[in-house]
Amino acid sequence: MSNNFVPVGLSNRHLHLSQEHIEILFGEGYELTKFKDLSQPGQYACNEKVDIVGPKGTLKGVRILGPARGKTQIEISLADGFVLGVKPPVRDSGDLAGSPGAKIVGPKGEVTIEEGVIAAARHIHMHTSDAEKFGVKDKDIVKVKVEGKRGMIFENVLVRVHPTYALEMHVDMDEGNAAGIKNGDMLEVLK
Amino acid sequence: MSNNFVPVGLSNRHLHLSQEHIEILFGEGYELTKFKDLSQPGQYACNEKVDIVGPKGTLKGVRILGPARGKTQIEISLADGFVLGVKPPVRDSGDLAGSPGAKIVGPKGEVTIEEGVIAAARHIHMHTSDAEKFGVKDKDIVKVKVEGKRGMIFENVLVRVHPTYALEMHVDMDEGNAAGIKNGDMLEVLK
């Protein structure tokens, strides 16, 4: 039997904002405030939420994740894309070229980004020591098995290794529902 | 190379109604009217839509599929379940025991069912001749492979064989989005 199990986390729609955009949306000099820590060290869910507006509809009250980033990035599911009327490409975080844009509406202002709306590609965060244990390295592609009535094997799962990461697989809500899994379920990485 | 490919169809939320419930919702003696034929012979999408009401929210304008059935059955995604505030079990069609209920609101009346809200388990309809070609029989469980960025292998796929069926795999919107597939995509059945 394999001991290569990872806990899974389901990512609901969220966005990361540049400091410039934070100040447009919330006011000059504004700083995001922490709602709760996330599993990845240094990352946190913020109290602040904004509306995302697309050509066909609006996603209201979408949570911001902190801290501020170099570039604004909106991560939604394909189902959310139908609501907005945009087709987010499935991309790794930070790979935004050619992705659709959207309007972001905050309490003090709004900003329209020309690109930055993506569906996050499934991936596993690993601490360097986890990667050693699993026998994988940064940017490797692995498969992950889900048991149960909605059992499946996720292919093309990107491994991301960094000394600041905690072991966790991230999928979006479409993927979590399709596989019948919930936060904290343990999934097997196939070699 | 295998020739065992099936076209896929993504099932959006829908419901099947008993004749008794059709008459409560639309009026005495009412008969459903056809909007368009579905891929399965004799099955059709109706012009008629209803609202589905759960403890937390409402799904508005859910399409009815005809013809009338012996028992009313509401098929939604797990994401839809969050909107309604119910947890649909993943079930094969007709297997409704112990599933949650909901209120159905039509133009002439409303009806509350005690059970019947499910998330349809992924399955493949096959004509008898398809089953022969694929080397499977009714109620077999197979795996189905999806290629691409969101590639995966669906496990626990139920095969349903009948002389009136047309070859098609059915998944729900969560599963379709998770796999990055669209109606008519050809998927490989693994032996």
From TrEMBL, chains A, B:
GO terms for molecular function: acyltransferase activity, transferring groups other than amino-acyl groups; metal ion binding. Keywords: Acyltransferase, Metal-binding, Transferase, Zinc. Its cofactor is Zn(2+). Its EC number is 2.3.1.222. Pfam families: PTAC. It catalyses: propanoyl-CoA + phosphate = propanoyl phosphate + CoA. It is an enzyme of class 2 (transferase). Pathway: Polyol metabolism; 1,2-propanediol degradation. Involved in 1,2-propanediol (1,2-PD) degradation by catalyzing the conversion of propanoyl-CoA to propanoyl-phosphate. Belongs to the PduL family. PANTHER family: PHOSPHATE PROPANOYLTRANSFERASE. This is Phosphate propanoyltransferase. The lineage of its organism: Bacteria, Bacillati, Bacillota, Clostridia, Eubacteriales.
